[in-house]
Amino acid sequence: MNPSFTTYSDFRQRYPIQFGDDSLWLGSGTYGRVIKVEDQVETEWVAIKICECRSDDTKSLKAEVELARKVPRHANIARYDACHRLQTEMGMSDFAIMKYYPDGNLANLLKSRSLSEVELRELVRGILEGLEALHRQRIVHRDFKPANILISRDNRGRLVPKIADFGLSKFVAEDEIDSSDFDLSDGRGTPAYKAPEQITGGTVSFNLDLWAFGVILYEMVTGEKPFSSGAQSNEPTQRREMENKIAAVQLPDRLTTVAEPFQGMIRRCLVKDIKGRVRKPDELLSLLEKPTTQIPVSKPVPLAVPIGGPREEYTDVFIPSGPIVPTPKQSDRKINKPSVVLPIEIPSVRVWLPLAIGAAVMVVSMSLWFGRTTASSYEKGIGQSVAAIDTKNLENGDKEIPTPPASVQKAGIIDGSGPASSKPTKSELSTIKKGGENLNKPTESKADKVALKKQEAQQEYEDLIEKGNGAINSSNDKAAAMNYFRSANQLATVNGLDTAKGNAAYTQYLEKGDRINDRDSYLGAMAWYKVAQSLRPTDEVKRKIRECEINLNL
């Protein structure tokens, strides 16, 4: 049972902290520094984390300890034994006590030596099982890195990872977890292990920690970080270069040389779209069960085209096995020779001239006989057919009304009473028809038309704002959102629309940019300011964007 201390003096009697001994300081975390102290009762070393109390108690060391206690005891989660809030000479401070691990953390281990395959698999399995336990309790770590993974040993000397430091961790409420994705990103975290959504300030999910795991796994396998910056530049410049590479997900070429299943696990983690990224640790644990397959190091080769054309799953680093179409040699190519044209024998004039004359006489005789028998029947029915032709051609619009034969016009039978020239023209028939339609149409004033057009434009404006908000909420697609917002803004300007919905969105994204800007994450802040600018290009948002560009040396 952990004792309670009423004074700082009592606490120092059991835990004599030696502030002046630099060799005892183990490091610093999100909320304070960690020092090694000998417990005078148990006669063993412990690690004590010390942090001054802040005005916001929800971000105190005590709150971190209480959050960690929500997780049931687990072999891969480091636990605090106790936390005491005491008045010191410097003010009120929290003192959190936990077990001391002589092997340090994973960052120390990776610097000291390389890992065997057995050690690598055991550590990876333990890390994933620890993350799984955290996520099961609805906790997102948000600062997952090698320095926050302590190394312990079991009774057989095997390495056991323990996830620690929950200073930036968040407990996700039940109403937030229903949608699987929630807004917890505020730009904080260690730059090299941040996910793209932490940099840009987008919606996050539990697989935020799995992005960081992918970075850690790459570092465990290769000994270097996947996203790095130029060593010659200053710290702010290095940070900007790193964040730009992370935001663009510029994976290193060396990843292609990493053995499976580790390469596949890294690729599943380092995906920009949170919907496409691996969602749960147990998916990676399944991949870990596969045997190791070494990838031979070779120079990149140009992609070949498989039989049947290119496949969709081709990428610049993955070529599926399959038959390849060889490039034919010149001698192997078939030459398509033109077909042979046979000469046609033409009969002499003596043969075909009499035949042609006879055929012509026969055709003329048949035409005269056929015309004599059908003329009368044609004239009888033409009066009825012309009226139908007029109506039909009027419906067809621009088609020309056919003119009856001259014999029919001469007989004067188009309307049964007069000559052919007395029939209505196409334009006259069209005018009569349109006049009849207009009699049935209700009159509509010009003011009504204007009002209806404005109403339709207002609905289109609000739909565009909704689509823009949806693009951000669903996948943090700022580019798509800004296209919607610009179209809405232009529509409102032309038609003089009510922009209350757009103004509300403008305020929301401007304030989001301000929160990220307060933490000196200028790249992420500028991204949100540009979203706000697409809604309303005010002088205020232009000034904020310019300030970010100055801070980024753009």
Commentary on this structure:
The chain has 4 domains: 92 residues, Phosphorylase Kinase, domain 1; 183 residues, Transferase(Phosphotransferase) domain 1 (Transferase(Phosphotransferase), domain 1), CATH 1.10.510.10; 57 residues, no CATH class; 103 residues, Serine Threonine Protein Phosphatase 5, Tetratricopeptide repeat (Alpha Horseshoe). Helix content is 46%, strand content 10%. The protein is extended, with a radius of gyration of 41 Å. It is α+β, with helices and mostly antiparallel strands. The strands form 4 sheets. Strands 1-2-3-5-4 form a 5-stranded antiparallel β-sheet, covered by helices on one side. Strands 6-9 form a two-stranded antiparallel sheet. It has 18 helices and 11 strands. The two termini are 58 Å apart. Helix 4 runs antiparallel to helix 7, helix 15 packs parallel to helix 17 and helix 16 packs antiparallel against helix 17.
- Write out the strand line-up for the largest beta sheet, numbering strands in chain order: 1-2-3-5-4
Structural class from helices and strands?
alpha+beta
Strands, total number = 11
Strand content: 5-15%
CATH class of the largest domain: Mainly Alpha
CATH topology term of the largest domain = Transferase(Phosphotransferase), domain 1
Number of domains: 4
Number of helices: 18
Low-confidence stretches: 177-183, 296-351, 373-402, 405-422
Mean pLDDT: 76
Outline: extended
In CATH, the homologous superfamily of the largest domain goes by the name: Transferase(Phosphotransferase) domain 1
